[in-house]
Amino acid sequence: MPPRLGIATPAPLHATRLGGVLLTDARARAGASEGALVVAEVASEALVLGAFQRAASTVDLDRVARTGMQLARRSTGGTALHARPGQVFFALELANAAALGGTSDPARALNRHVRPLLSALGRLGIAATYGGRDFVQAKGAPIAWLGVTHDVKSGSIGIEALFAVDEPFTLTPADDLAHGAVERWLGKTPSTLAATLGRNVASSEVIAAIVDVYGAHARDETSTFELGGARALDPRTEDPPFGALVEEAMGLLGALVEGTSGSGRHALGGELMASPHALDAVARALDQVDDAHIEATLDAHLGPSSGALLFGVKSLASIAKVVRAARAARR
What we know:
Helix content is about 25%, strand content about 25%. The longest helix has 15 residues, at about 205-215. The mean pLDDT is about 95. It has an eight-stranded mixed sheet with strand order 7-8-9-10-6-2-1-11. A three-stranded mixed sheet has the order 4-3-5, with no helix packed on it. The protein is an alpha+beta fold and about 325 residues long.
């Protein structure tokens, strides 16, 4: 019988390559039936965009160029993060949402699979909680960021996390174009594991705790493997900014409509988390419909019966609003 969970041999990861981990087909490399786990120390510094953000709408690109800061991209959506040494990166590739005792509903996958992470933090002496958002908190402050992605074709789930061991993961106000205009983290100031515990914490402690808990979660039916092959995802700095932005639960939604014929060519994104294929498909479908059919098109591709993941968006009405605003900006 194949092992349920493959666990990568811990090795430092460059910040620019974090987003490529979930694209390495690690579960197949490990020969595991249900999942593959990668937990690694962050070995360099970069501003890491969410999968659906546009660099020109997110960060001050002139400042990035002046400072020489590297830009990268994740596999999951959500807000941009400042990845650097003093943090631990986590990636979990699952065959489906129900793997490793999960749930059949992709929308609830993050809620279910974050529980072992809370247990791991508990082993370190941190009473952490998860409130259904994009972070884990302790003592009222976010200490780990969370992201999720879903493949509508295969049903696979990917989860990413960034633990602020002794360095926070937030962008500086100077880097963040939306600073002061958008309330992130429910208005709370992110902290670190070291500040929460009041002592120094080694990244190796955090990695060991997570690996031990997930190994037990898989009933010790595990194997080890070498990761290798994680590539840097293109931040696409040449992409134009979104034509319209609307604030939602976890940050900004964006839309851009280009072209002069028909309804134009649509692009959707921002700080939401979603099934990438579904987001691409709904953008193509919007190219073919007029304003009266926007809501029905969104519901067909992203609504409850679509089978797609949509996280961080309270209502499809917000996406409809930003699409209409982007169409108006094009005119």
